[in-house]
Amino acid sequence: MCSRTLSRLRQNFPYIPPEATVDHLVIGAGVVGLAIGRELVHRFRSRSTFVVERNPQPGQETSSRNSEVIHAGIYYPQDSLKTALCLRGRKLMYDYCRKHEIPHKKIGKLIISRSREETEYLQKLYDKCQSLNGSQDLRRGVMFGRMEDRDEELVPFRVIDQAEAHALEPDLSPDVSFGLFSPETGVLDSHAFISSLENSIENSENGELVYGTHVVRIDRSSTDQGWVVQTQTNADQPGEGGGERNSVLAKCLVNCAGLNAHNIYNHLLYPRSRQLQLGFCKGSYYSYGSPKGVDSVKHLIYPTPIQQPTQKSFVGLGTHLTLDMNQKIKFGPDVEWLTTRMIKANKGLVGKCGPDGLAADALEELQDFWTELLVPNDQRLETTYQSVKGYLPGVDRDHFSPDYSGIRPKLRTMEGSQNESNQELLLNGNERMSDSQLPNLDDFYINQSEPGFVNLLGIESPGLTSSLAIAEHVAKLIQQLPSGLSLKSRQSTAHERFSAVGHLDDWA
């Protein structure tokens, strides 16, 4: 892996004028980027939409390394985007899966407690569910104003006692004394869902998917409304020399690059010494290859969530049991915070950083350092086993084996000073905001950070469940943006459209 940093990219790829124009350029073809691309091509049929992905296939990072669960939407603050978009997204997801024949199963979920403190937490969680069900504003958003559905609960949940918990799942520990049951929680084949979104874009007349292409530089256009985006395709070492370079003017740029989204946004902040940083939270999954101790399992089983020290948020949903569409059992994810690798801004550069660069002693993130850490940590297997044994005492350690791991992009890092910096960088220059108006680093951040630049940051769980609702939300944000050129127009302009530029056909 080369030592790719923002300043190195800026030096390796000096500004070049755009060769073509596109109305919407979406960076990232994970499940959220694909959902946004699909929404844009169908909602704005007279505009062009391109989705650019650095990997050779879609959904290769966070989107393909998760639990494949359709979440109920109960864990997050009532006024958060996570709650609103998860509830709306769950409804859209089930509708989409039925319509497009995506394999899915409404399997139900048990959240269990084994202590007085955990029971108190779950009782408060149930009370919150009742509050969500009573919110008319939330209902209008989830149901899109169709109040004829007012008798339908937004969050169907019921309290179960010890007897019912063990009737539902006989393999549970006798210590399990209380629980909540969510009948609306399910699982899906996320790969089939991703493929369906991909096909929807590819089969449209105004959308294109571009794989194997890295965004290496972004600049504000000095002559047109929009953003000059420089890309590198088919390079042996992305971010270094080689490969094919293109420069395009994007009237609207949508940043949903997931684990790389902060680095994309930092192009706009450059050359400021402070840069946005994410917290990288790795979670490993372990397969279980025996019916021993789980022979009767029919539902997803979740322990009480792992709390942050402040008790205002949680790190993860605990090492839970999930069943995939083939009834295969896996346990995970655990929680392992990664240390972001930083290097000096001038390391490996030719000459010194000048007026358009960072100070020589500034530290920058070594981009994509986490790619070397995606192997499940087998040293954590024992901890996972002990965690699972607490609620499924019959499991056998010998049948646990590392399966895969994923990394959650979190806006809240483990460093308090960096969290303060992140909030300030996301204020958009509005320094008069009260503390209650500061960006919530535990929530999704979806905002038009600059005119024509829609920023999606910290899109972790429940991102898969929320993906179709996130796409609706983003489409509303850009509803009023200029529509750009007509796809049917072939008149001479300062920048021709992608579809009209012959030498860019291979790029698409």
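the 2nd protein, sequnce then structure:
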Amino acid sequence: MKKVKNILENIMSAEVLIGAFLVIVMVFIMVMEVIMRYIFNNPIIWVQEFVIMMFIWITMLGGSAALMMKTHVTITTFSQFFSDRWKTILQLLVSLIIIGVLIYLAMTLPDSIKIQNKTRTSSMPINIAKGHYYSTPLLIAVILMLLTQFYYVYFEVKMLLGKAVPEDYLLQMRPIFKAHKVNGEVDV
């Protein structure tokens, strides 16, 4: 499971890095659009669709990374009064519900892509069927979330059975850029 954890943590780091890059590109393109529209009076017609596509990617990658780090919003009003065993049972139940929803999404995505492929982008320089750039990020996020949930279910079942679980089983964000030591001092 250590290898699986390392793979998932590397994927999460890549998701965050790609998401951050897409945010920077999206802001840059929107600033360029404002400059082109209001200073040069020559708007870029494909910006809106492109920004929507990037926002979808950012949202799906962010949702997957949040699930990996277990940072999604949780309501603990009642569960805080439960015993550790019941908290584990509740968490396992929630994980199984999430897996069920993700499997349902994965099963319905091909039909969704077929429906969306009937329309094409109207303003993008490349004429792409909408199903590809609207549903592909969702498909990738669903696959990554399923892998993550199966990883966590494995440990939740182990906890429920009273077996030893490593304290560091939770996925952690790895530093993207590593610090280097120069003359005994950390140089970033």
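The longest strand covers residues 180-182. The chain has a mean pLDDT of 87.
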